[in-house]
Amino acid sequence: MSARLPEGVDAVLPRGARDLLPAAARRRRAVTEALLGVFDRWGYDPVVTPAIEYFAVFGRWLAERERQRCVRFIEAGSGELVTLRSDITPQIARLAGQQLRERLAAGEAVRLCYAADVVRLSEGTREQSERHQVGVELLGDDAPEADAELILLADEALRAAGVKGATLEVADVGIARGVFERLPGCDLEALHGLLARKDAGGVARMAAGLALDDEPRRWLGLLCELFGAPGILEHVPGDIRARWPWLAERLGRLEAALAVVQARAPELHARLVVDLGEVRGFDYYTGLRLRAWAPGSARPLVVGGRYAGGAGFAVELDALEASLDAAGETTAGRAGGVMIASQGREPQARALAVARAQALRAAGRRAWVQAGLSLEAAQAAAAEADELLYFGADERAEIWSQGQPGAWRRAEESGA
């Protein structure tokens, strides 16, 4: 019997939503467990935050554009404005303030990890409204070594999930912010867009229309140019470092973090890309900005950085899986186990199959029952199994094993 949708409901999902069939769902679980296993080895403890929060929790953290993407509703009884979870970090901040304050006040660095779904109103037809994330938050440690830890951890987590040779992009949004603070009034949103596109000509034209001193004018141009391997930091003019102590401090912190990465993981250091003109997340992040890219995904696999009170990153599972698909890593392998099938649907035939399944499960094996199938149909239905135990019309059990998918080999025949 086929499943039927309720009256008036068709098969179209809401914009930005999708289903995962068993193989994809199984791979997601395997990827999630691999990521959480890495985080556990690094000392990150799991937490679970609620799917709903008072909107005020997010209102304090998110920029206006992101606040508008929250799915909001009025809580019955209280009349308070509530929202579906759209970001994990504000919830971690709320949790830390309510329940971890003493540990942080004592000087402890608190490491937390999570696996959660977030919901945001999509801004385009191709953008997902529901995102699936596995991430970490590091609270109470604002040293450059903590920034380096996040870079190293992100790479190890991606490799554990099957992504090889990802490009990690690092930046310090405080550099661009410091420059903007020294500009006369201008269209900062337009400037953000020019810098995000590395439009040096557009930046130069905008700068020409502003009353700027030499250093801000030169640095605006450099924000488009200083993008590349970590050695790009050596191209920052010494006179600007000398004139702007705040810039020298920012650059020194970034250099210190990258030096830690180079000492611990030279191969990773060679894959890093430094972008001193990074402005995305300008309203959210305060220092380190971290993203990871890999072929097959138009979106970053990792997003994160340092914010007021902590630092962290989230692995975007949908983007990671797109990269795995592009690399040919399309499945997590068969689920395995034994399917017990019977040709007949009679109570006696079903009882035989159920008894075998119960015995196998009691022995710790995965086992399930299908009734009323031909041998050919049973073999097709057992695509995820290692073995097929088939009861024919004479109630004799045929045992079939599957090596490669679809390559069934009969192992033995016995009495019922």
Automatic annotation (TrEMBL):
Heteromultimer composed of HisG and HisZ subunits. Required for the first step of histidine biosynthesis. May allow the feedback regulation of ATP phosphoribosyltransferase activity by histidine. Belongs to the class-II aminoacyl-tRNA synthetase family. HisZ subfamily. One of its GO terms (molecular function) is glycosyltransferase activity. The keyword Amino-acid biosynthesis applies. The gene is hisZ. It holds the Pfam family tRNA-synt_His. It comes from Nannocystis punicea. InterPro entries: aa-tRNA-synth_II/BPL/LPL, HisRS-like_core, HisRS/HisZ, HisZ. This function is generally fulfilled by the C-terminal part of HisG, which is missing in some bacteria such as this one. Gene3D superfamilies: Bira Bifunctional Protein, Domain 2 (3.30.930.10). It comes from the Bacteria. Keywords: Amino-acid biosynthesis, Cytoplasm, Glycosyltransferase, Histidine biosynthesis, Transferase. Pathway: Amino-acid biosynthesis; L-histidine biosynthesis; L-histidine from 5-phospho-alpha-D-ribose 1-diphosphate: step 1/9. Residues 16-319 form the Class II Histidinyl-tRNA synthetase (HisRS)-like catalytic core domain. The keyword Transcription does not apply. This is ATP phosphoribosyltransferase regulatory subunit. It is found in: Cytoplasm.
